[in-house]
């Protein structure tokens, strides 16, 4: 919850600092509709937009230490603030609010930049130490809350979203070719890169400190790590039952911590194992029915309402379903892009934005969700697919092994596995990369990269010269190949799709668009650290994903939910932009030859053909759908920020 | 227009979004070159079934029959010869 913005430097004439900060923070009103707070002194300005969740009465930010030398603005929640405060008070610290924010300044007084290691939560923090005249920016371990920064004219600007930076430095709103190519490969630029030239994203698990003399230090305080392959013998744990018990305790504790709020807390219920587990665990903490929310789709391919309602009955929740049709998705898409400020390859975030609106309309501002379980416990088909591909690569001429692939992707109407002979060919692609840490992601990135065909010739030439695999590899830890393959795959997933897209566009941005806060118990870092030590075979047993999580939740859920195979959350893509074969007005306008030409980014002929194919309802596969949505979202970014084109 | 050229035009337009005839040859592996992906094979087969009087049975849906322009043309030679 909340938004933050500010600067380090003296960009405004004396007396005009507040107006400058207001210009920045007003662009983040959706993140903090409950009030603004400011602190400015020579050399620094801090602004905050508040969404009140803890300490409604006195928790306004910025918050300072007793000496008024340390000031902070922060977006997020520190779930263990109760325990931290008790420890600090026992050591003589005196608090003036009841907020979670205040522990930050006291921890900084005591531990310096290492304050961040004591926090269990989701957060983006800007802290000013006036005594040493240094600024500290920090982001949570997995990337739940965003923090962007840029430098212009001797000033360093920072904010929760690029739009606040652009309010201060309009010239900074320039799309980045590098960012664009990454978005069309990995679904999102890899931290610290962004879609915008000169705008950086503070990577998750990092602290950026800027000293009085201008020296900058970027420090990593946390990362996803996995044991060496040799260390994942089950013997290390005694037996799986012991681990199941410990996992259950940790899940209960993560939910307990993340229920902390001075406002009512709801939950999303997708009908799958993960969110059902969260709701079941929440029920253990309350006598009143849990308030749950979900989306339902008209198209059966995407709809999960039968499973959702089964869970509602089983747990006796008070439930609201939001029914969504493709046309609503198309209509709301421009608003999504205005919030994400980056190209997106799928429309799936739109229903979640509409759901967030609905949650707010029902009077709730906080929801727990099941996000993160797939990354932590090996839920995605991508992990299973990689397992089969590796298994098969050892005997490439085998005709038997590829049949395992037909067990994958069962939920897809136009499934690549529908054609066993072809599935064998397609999943055999990338065999030459078997010894590389990015092996599991090669097919996905090859699919996304087909969108390069629509780039204008000069850009396409650049794109074809760029080695997306090597670039992604360059961001990986040196020892990643010592880890078991599943650990490598999980790491790459956590650092690319999870941080870059799922927690960002599909998480933070869409919830904040409706001024609500999402919470992710599966991403409690102590839970993640524990899960990362587990043997791969306890996460994916044969081809059954999230095995140990199912065991840990089994007694809480009906059999069919506990056993249910993952159905990834998806929404209609290109079909959302055409009604009865006619494009929505704004879509037709954006795809006009004149507009495509003016964009300078896209090949007019190829893109026009893609549009025609979509209009004819013949865009059926992932590659074409992703290209269509990717091109459309980029054109929207240009429309929303005139002058943002490249060159 | 010959059958081979008609198929080529379909592949060029539907998968490569171009009409540049030099984009691939009769022997180019459509899968290896990323021209046709997994769902693309289904699109291709639908096009063939809509354009010529043939039904492609599941057992014929193999790379040997569909992975290149030449292969497709030879497959249809066999099916339509009768």
Could you explain how this protein is built, in words?
The complex is a heterodimer of chains A (647) and B (82). Chain A is an alpha+beta fold and 647 residues long. Helix content of chain A is 40%, strand content 15%. Chain A is built from 26 helices and 19 strands. In chain A, helix 1 packs antiparallel against helix 4 (162-168). The longest helix of chain A is centred in the middle third of the chain and has 19 residues, at 240-258. Chain B is mostly helical. Chain B has four helices and no strands. The relative contact order of chain B is 0.18. Classes of the chains: A alpha+beta (647), B mainly alpha (82). The interface between A and B is medium-sized, with 29 and 21 residues.
Main beta-sheet annotation of chain B? none
Spatial ordering of strands, largest sheet of chain A: 2-3-1-9-8-10
Assembly type of the shown chains? Answer: heterodimer
Total helical segments of chain B: 4
Mean pLDDT of chain A: 93
Mean pLDDT of chain B: 91
**Count of DSSP strands of chain B:** 0
What's the total number of strands of chain A? 19
Report how far the terminal alpha carbons of chain B are from each other: 21 Å
Helix content of chain A: 40-55%
How does the major sheet of chain A shape up? 6 strands, antiparallel
One letter per element, helices H and strands E, the order of chain B comes to: HHHH
Proportion of residues in β-strands of chain B = under 5%
The gross shape of chain A turns out to be: globular
């Amino acid at each position: 919850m909340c938004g933050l913005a500010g600067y380090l430097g003296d960009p405004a004439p004396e007396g005009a600092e507040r107006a400058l900060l207001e210009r920045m923070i007003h662009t983040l009103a959706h993140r903090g509709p409950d009030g603004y707070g400011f602190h400015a002194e020579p050399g620094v300005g801090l602004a905050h937009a508040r969404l009140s969740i803890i300490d409604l009465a006195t928790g306004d930010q910025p918050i300072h230490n007793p000496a008024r030398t340390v000031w902070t603005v922060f977006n997020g929640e520190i779930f263990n603030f109760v325990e931290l405060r008790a420890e600090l008070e026992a050591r003589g610290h005196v608090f003036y609010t009841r907020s979670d924010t205040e522990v930050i300044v006291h921890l900084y007084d005591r531990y310096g930049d290492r304050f961040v290691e004591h926090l269990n939560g989701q957060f983006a923090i800007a802290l000013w130490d006036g005594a040493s005249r240094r600024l500290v920016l920090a982001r949570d371990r997995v990337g739940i809350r965003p923090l962007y920064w840029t430098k212009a004219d001797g000033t360093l600007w920072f904010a929760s979203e690029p739009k606040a930076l652009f309010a201060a430095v309009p010239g900074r709103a320039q799309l980045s070719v590098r960012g664009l190519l990454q978005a069309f490969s990995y679904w999102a630029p890899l931290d610290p890169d962004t879609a915008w030239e000169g705008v950086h994203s503070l990577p998750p698990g990092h602290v950026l400190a800027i000293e009085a003399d201008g020296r900058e230090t970027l420090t990593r305080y946390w990362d996803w790590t996995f044991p060496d392959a040799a260390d994942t013998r089950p013997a290390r744990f005694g037996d799986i039952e012991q681990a199941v018990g410990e996992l259950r305790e940790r899940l209960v504790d993560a939910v307990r911590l993340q229920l902390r709020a001075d406002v009512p807390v709801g939950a999303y219920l997708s009908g799958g194992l993960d969110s059902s587990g969260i709701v079941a665990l929440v029920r253990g903490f309350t006598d009143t029915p849990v308030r749950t929310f979900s989306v339902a789709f008209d198209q059966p391919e995407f709809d999960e309402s039968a499973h959702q309602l089964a869970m509602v009955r089983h747990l006796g929740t008070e439930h609201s379903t939001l029914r969504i049709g493709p046309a609503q998705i198309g209509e709301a898409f421009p608003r999504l892009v205005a919030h994400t400020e980056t190209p997106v390859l799928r429309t799936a975030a739109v229903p979640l934005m509409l759901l967030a609106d609905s949650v707010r309309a029902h009077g709730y501002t906080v929801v727990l969700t099941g996000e993160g379980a797939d990354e932590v416990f090996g839920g995605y088909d991508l992990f299973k697919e990689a397992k089969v591909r590796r298994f098969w690569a050892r005997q490439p001429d085998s005709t038997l092994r590829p049949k395992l692939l037909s067990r994958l992707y069962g939920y897809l109407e136009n499934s690549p596995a529908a054609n066993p002979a072809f599935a064998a060919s397609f999943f055999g692609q990338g065999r030459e990369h078997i010894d590389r840490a990015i092996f599991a992601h090669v097919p996905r990135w090859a699919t996304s990269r087909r969108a390069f065909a629509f780039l204008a010739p000069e850009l396409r030439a650049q794109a074809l010269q760029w080695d997306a695999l090597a670039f992604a590899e360059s961001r990986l830890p040196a020892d990643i190949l010592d880890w078991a393959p599943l650990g490598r795959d999980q790491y790459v997933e956590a650092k690319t799709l999870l941080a870059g897209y799922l927690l960002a566009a599909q998480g933070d941005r869409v919830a904040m668009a409706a001024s609500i806060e999402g919470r992710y118990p599966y991403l409690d870092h102590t839970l993640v650290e524990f899960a990362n030590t587990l043997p791969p075979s306890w996460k994916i047993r044969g081809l059954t994903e999230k095995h140990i999580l199912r065991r840990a939740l089994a007694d809480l859920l009906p059999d069919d939910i506990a056993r249910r195979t993952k159905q990834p959350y998806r929404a209609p893509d290109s079909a959302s932009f055409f009604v009865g074969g006619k494009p929505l007005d704004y879509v037709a306008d954006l795809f006009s030859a004149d507009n495509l030409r003016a964009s300078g980014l896209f090949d007019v002929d190829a893109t026009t053909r893609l549009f025609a194919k979509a209009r004819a309802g013949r865009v059926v596969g992932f590659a074409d759908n992703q290209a269509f949505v990717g091109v459309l979202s980029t054109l929207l970014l240009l429309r929303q920020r005139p002058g943002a084109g490249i060159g | 227009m010959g059958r081979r050229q008609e198929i080529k035009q379909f592949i060029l337009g539907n998968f490569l979004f171009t009409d540049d005839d030099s984009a691939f040859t009769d022997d180019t592996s459509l899968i290896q070159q990323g021209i046709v992906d997994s769902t693309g094979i289904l699109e291709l087969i639908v096009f063939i079934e809509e354009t010529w009087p043939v039904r492609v049975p599941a057992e014929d849906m193999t790379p040997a029959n569909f992975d290149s322009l030449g292969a497709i043309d030879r497959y249809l030679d066999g099916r339509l010869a009768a």
